[in-house]
Amino acid sequence: MRAEVFGRPRMAVLGTIRGRRECLSRPGQIDIQTELFYDYRSNVERYPQWQRYLREHRPPTLVVWGKYDASFTVEGAHAYGRELPDARIHLLDAGHFALDEACDEIGALTHAFLTELGRS
User: Fold this and answer.
1) 109, 88, 9, 74 alpha-carbon torsion, rounded to 10°
2) What is the pLDDT of residues 81-91, one digit of tens each?
3) Mean pLDDT confidence for 96-105
């Protein structure tokens, strides 16, 4: 039986953590990440602007979402569907770092989406 962390196989989580730690250890990253985190406070107040833009412009949209993401719940993925009924929404067997955990699946979904748009 494999040990799990946050519902994910332990080795997948540890590999992701190591990679993130290496990235965040680079010079200047503390300031960059602090500024990014601080800027999150403006997100909620901007939701009406973003929602209006999506409703008015209806851009082709592919949403790939880790269904085990504790930071951004599945409800967030469904919110895109309310604003963009034609959005392609895929809930993946992944967490917050879905691209690390489901790279091949995301690549295939992206390729199919761009092919459908005539842009691959």
Assistant:
1) 170
2) 999 999 999 99
3) 89
Query: Domain map of the chain by residue range?
Result: 4-116
The single residue of 57, 78, 90, 96 carrying the catalytic annotation is 96
Quick one: tokens of 16? Answer: 């992701």
Q: How far apart, in Å, do the first and last CA atoms of the chain sit?
A: 41
Give Cα separations from 80 to 6, 15, 27, 95 (angstroms).
Answer: 25, 30, 35, 18
Q: How far is CA 94 from CA 8, 12, 82, 114, in A?
A: 8, 10, 23, 22
Instruction: Identify the pLDDT of residue 16.
Output: 60
pLDDT of residue 41: 81
Give the Cβ contact number of residue 25 at 10 Å.
9
Active site residue 57: no
- CATH 1.20.1300 assigned to domain 4-116? The reply is no
Instruction: State the pTM of this model.
Output: 0.71
From CA 52, how far away is CA 55, in angstroms rounded? 5
